[in-house]
Amino acid sequence: MIFPAFLRRRWWRVIALLGLFASAIIAQDWQIADNQTIAPGVFYQALQLQTPPTWVGVVHIPLPMQKEMVLVTALGGDGGLGRQPVSKIASRTQEQKGYVTAAINGDYFSMTATTYSGDPLGVHIQDGELVSLPTPDRSALVGLRDGRMLITRFRMEALLQFPDNPTAPLDGLNQPPPQSGWCLYTPTFGATTQTPPGTVEVIATADLPLHPNTLLMATVQRVVETGNSAIPKGGVVLAATGKETAKAKTLPVGAKVQVIINLTPLDASFDLRDVVWAIGGGPRLLREGRISVESTEEGFPLRFAETRHPRTAVGLKEDALLWVVVDGRQPGYSEGISLYELAELLLRSGCKDAMNLDGGGSSTLFLRGSVVNRPSDGQERPVVNALLLLNLFPPQPLVRLWVNAPDGHWLAGSVVPLRVMGEDAAYRLIPLTADTVTVTLEPPLSGWRWDGNLLLLPRWEGDEPKTVKVQGQAKDGNVATATVSLCVHPQPASLTVMPSPISAAPNASVRLQVKALGRERDGQSVPLRFDPAAVQWQVDGEVGEVLDGVFVAASNPKQGTLRAVLNGVAVKVPVHISEAPWQVLHEFDDWDGMKLQGYPESTKVDGSIVTTNKRSGTGALRLSYDFSQGVKTRTASVVLNKPLPAGARRLALWVYGDGSGCWLRARLREGTGRTSLM
């Protein structure tokens, strides 16, 4: 693969940091945001680049691993396939298997909310059990019993053999049934098959678990035609569709059906029976010490590789496994990187082989109880699986304390999330309660409280900020005191309410946002953190009321003011209640200036003008789309080539959703050509 020279120049300076070489010279424009030992021999480092803004988090896991450090994969559902945030997957895994030192998101999945959206699109093996089939030509990270880790694609042959010796292809495993064929469901999928009513299904006992390249013998118990069958804990369900239903109906009770799923690695040589875990993703980024961004070969569009996005990746060195998470889509903090930049970064870190995992809003890095990156959705996205590092060292004594609180400047009277953690000799963080820790504030202040999780800051008169040191001391043992400093302002220097002024139609609701600025001793203004519920609202002129931070307009046109008060500082906002001066851009009742577009081109999109569910005008556009084909991101778009009126501040779209869970997005193109996603 050929990639631009400027990418090489941009990234080489950070490589020594990512490789965690003590002798490296740190580039001047990179800052080390965090640097921790998180388990014996395991290190974490966070790096921040200012231009262009880029945040990178790296976990360095030495190879071969100590026997007490174990890598596992885990699914996103509690009782089967499903989707959960990485932190929830880690919490559940910790309860079942042991302390989770670190975790990252794994494979791609369908964003459409269906009963099968918890199915990873690629291969998933956990504890040796095959749960999800590989996607053809897609890379996967594989862990073997001897401790080796490999990146490979798979060729697959899956067959069913019936008592009279004929065979049939097995078309799916724990996924939506094919239009015509066979799909196997194991207890790991969940309680029932979730198939449509009328689906013909063979319920059988089986010698579980299902392993790749190992014969599974299933003994027929009964054949039903109701669909959504219960999956026996000691057995499987074979769903038959299309022309295969006739064969399923002929199977007698007691018949033996053999299931064999053979996986052949294409990029390595090993026995599939030695696989402990595997997790899919793609594309491959490095091959045998060379950059090889194989996006096209693995079915990804070129734009996916070239555009800067949040990313999650894994890299294999001679003596270490690297996890790399890059934040993105957040201007001023981190823009993300392309796959070519990511490949260069991993190569210069000393990796010989590397692959990409699911990214975008899925990119998540979890360390010792908390998420340390900033997912681009603003919160963790529920994902289908994760790769986790367990710390299984025996219990150890506490050796140090940590006091954790969010960074920033706080307003007096606010409630600050604050935890005191004990770290044992194996670097595990253990939450401590108010019964086991003494917390003090310096300077001494009255009126504060800490319940073990939340610290209520006191209030005081004046306008000078104070640096408040919060100290934690274990009541038992000889562990040193831990301290965190909070900058606390007694009152804001200024308040701002958005929107201002408020123009709303009768009975309309407007979400209010309050920003408070404090003034430091050097005169610099800084944003203050506070509890929005602490804002007191006063309404003059009977223009409406404020409920939980939302302004609800009166039922008749009026004018008045809204007053916000926070710690004695107030700001007024003019309020105008009148029929909203909306200008209709398009009623979607004709095709003038409108066209439909699917991405990728294989996505089927169709539209028709209907008279039902119309908001106004003579009709409405009914948009039909098929996202069932393919494994890449798919979109169905209505392209409206209409200029926005001068001075337009808001855009509204009336939509009747179908409950499928697909995301609704709007893309605006400015006069400069720059596009914005809403």
Helix and strand arrangement:
Layout: H1 5-11, H2 15-18, E1 30-39, E2 42-49, E3 54-62, E4 69-75, H3 86-97, E5 99-105, E6 124-126, E7 129-132, E8 140-144, E9 149-152, E10 154-161, E11 167-169, E12 172-173, E13 181-185, E14 200-206, E15 216-224, E16 235-241, H4 245-249, E17 256-265, E18 275-280, E19 284-287, E20 290-291, H5 302-306, E21 311-316, E22 320-326, H6 339-348, E23 353-356, E24 365-367, E25 370-371, E26 385-391, E27 398-404, E28 409-411, E29 415-417, E30 419-424, E31 429-432, E32 437-442, E33 449-450, E34 454-456, E35 466-474, E36 482-489, E37 494-498, E38 502-504, E39 509-511, E40 513-519, E41 525-529, E42 536-540, E43 544-547, E44 550-553, E45 558-566, E46 569-577, E47 594-599, E48 604-610, E49 620-626, E50 635-640, E51 667-669, E52 675-677
Parallel strand pairs: 12-13, 28-36, 28-41, 38-46
Antiparallel strand pairs: 1-2, 2-3, 3-22, 4-26, 5-24, 5-26, 6-7, 6-18, 8-9, 8-18, 10-11, 10-17, 13-16, 14-15, 14-16, 15-17, 19-20, 19-23, 21-22, 21-23, 24-25, 27-30, 29-34, 30-31, 32-35, 33-34, 35-36, 37-40, 39-44, 40-41, 42-45, 43-44, 45-46, 47-50, 48-49, 51-52
Helix pairs in contact: 1-6
